[in-house]
Amino acid sequence: MQPNRPNKLLVNDVVLDNDALRVKVHGEWRTIEVKQLALLYLLIDNIGQTVTRDTIITTLWPDIIVSDNSVSQLVVQLRKTLGDNKNKPRFIKTVPRLGYQLIADVSDAPELTETLLAPQVNRPIYWLFAGLIIGMSALQLVNSQIFDTLQTAEYTYQSRLTASPGAEVFLRYSPNGRYLAFSHVGKNQEQFDLSVIDMKTQSLHNLKSTGYSEEAPVWSADGKWLAYYRYDPFSCTVRVFSVENAIEMWRLSPENTLFECDPAHGPLPIFWPTDTALYTQQWQESGIQVKHHEVLSSSGMRVSNTTLLPSDIGYLKDINTETGELLFSQLINGKQHLFKGRVEGGNITKRVLSNDTRGPSVWNKVVGSYVFGEHALKSVNQQGDEQLIYQPNGVITDIAVDLQGGHIAHSEGEAQVSLYHFDTRSQSITAELNAVSSPAKLDIMAEISEDGNWFAFASYGPQRQLGYTQVEIWIKHRQRDTANLLTMLPRNVFPNQLLLSPQGDNLLIVSEAGDVYLINLFSKKLITIIQDFKELRNIYWSDDGRSINYQAKQAAGQWQLWQYSLNELNNRLIERDPLKLERYKPVLAAQNVSFESFQSDVASYLLKHTKNEVDPKQLQASLRLYTPALFNEGIYYVLRQGHQLYLYCYYSQRQENIRIRSIGLYLYDISVPLSLSTDWLGSHILFNRVDGIETDIVLHRFNSATQ
């Protein structure tokens, strides 16, 4: 019997993640095969001792006859995964004619507070700097060939500031660049703690760890105050405390509550560009509303007045502390457009910077330039010229710029997004959910056939650069244990929607570009059936599953109704008069997210019938996270309460709203689509969720000599 092991181990400098079947080598996550992992654990269990080839064979291949060559090949593969060298081993030593021995140091993977410690009193600070300089020089020497091709002349990769289980997000530099504040959630934690790194001493200080969730810190313009959101399951407040004294005393500073906020939504960034102006933003039914708060510090920090900014700003990304210029984004035709602008006379004047910018964006040191990135960290100057700064390991979740020194810190990492099945007829509400997929990739777009027998989903790696990865489409029969790969989409094609036919024998794949693909579950032949239209909407299967109805608009044209026939393998025009299209629209229960008003219609229906039981703001926020799933008797939907996710069902005929069960946590907003699907009888529910986020903070030094 195997001993109980922690989910993560540190083997020399390699982090081993048992649950996700991966290892982090030189700051990069790699997949480790099951057999390699089994061999590594066998060596760990017998650390310092020789494990014979016979022991390896009988343990790893108990019922199969294999040769010594199988052992040799497995050791070669494991060494390659760990980055080990047979001639100069750091992990696995060959014992001639006997077997192998693990010579590495093994310990639990360190938590954040163990990876960044303040210097000891009896350790002179210059020795710390000497060690830091030597370590960074060695790191730069080893990686110089890699980073020379990735870095611009303006920036130099320096180091990772954190390397521990969990996520570091909401990064903010202090105005003088001395401190970096952020929120951290560790392994198996449900709440964020508030931490600060002293960039001068490279020491970490945990300021708030109360059992509540402390998120999204922001410094006052003079650097004397630090504000943040404090969440519990039922309330939210914005709090502030003084940071004028020594950093060791900050956690003891008394707090003021500035105002209450909406606990139904995750925090959106706060901005404090001047001593007396604080900006917050909050989701409303019509979108994001930005508020300006006048703050006074004469008798303890307090808010004296609050006004609303124009409603058409959208998502506020940053405010330039020198010019007051706003950086904000708006979703237009399914893409995030990035703007800069100013508020003048109650109106916003704006200019578009980009028609498709994903991920975080912040102003840079030079006025008018900015830094952005999701799958690559890039800078854009005043003329709009774009430069690559760094290619991350995973996805960039947050960016902070030291406006004094020009240095850039960002958090990067990976999320685990897996698919789960819940049988409403037989499973206990407290039973473990049935995992449909592994956490090795991001699994999205859950789809169930009408009879509940077939599950479909899309899967992709954490990086989505053009040409870097292909999206996989998987299929699983409900009564089978494992899913099977159905097809791989062409490169650069990312799905926007999956639709199984009523009989479950064909799958429709709608891409972000508006092309539609069809694949039969048994022949596995992928064909393109709809393309070259400017826009598509209202896509649905006929009842017999032999045709696909959809509305399409050609360039400078009007909406028309079309139909693709599986029997004739062609598209034909059904109705060209846009005034007559409404008559072909199916009932709400037969619609899906491709219908223009589907989400607003479902939201209005739920808000009307659950208003006495569910907080409307909380419901609106949750419906943006998970699209509800309709079936013949009602609607399944997910409600986010604090960081907890609950599955609810509103039964239309009975007019009854029931909380079914908890389905997990949602700690931080990431750009991964979450979905909920059910069969026509509502017997089976398929959904994906974020099971974990692993991020580290990375530092890039600004080379002032290049300016």
Automatic annotation (TrEMBL):
Keyword Iron among record annotations: no
Start-end of DNA-binding region: 6-104
Q: What is this protein called?
A: OmpR/PhoB-type domain-containing protein
Q: Which SUPFAM superfamilies match?
A: C-terminal effector domain of the bipartite response regulators, DPP6 N-terminal domain-like
Q: Which UniProt keywords apply?
A: DNA-binding
Gene Ontology terms: biological process: phosphorelay signal transduction system; regulation of DNA-templated transcription
Transmembrane stretches, start-end: none
Q: Which family does it belong to?
A: Belongs to the TolB family.
Task: Name the domain of life.
Answer: Bacteria
Q: Which PROSITE patterns match?
A: OMPR_PHOB (PS51755)
A molecular-function term among this protein's GO annotations: DNA binding
The answer on whether this UniProt entry bears the keyword Manganese reads no
Q: Which organism is it from?
A: Pseudoalteromonas citrea
Known Pfam families for this protein? PD40, Trans_reg_C
**CDD domains assigned:** trans_reg_C
Domain (OmpR/PhoB-type) spans 6-104
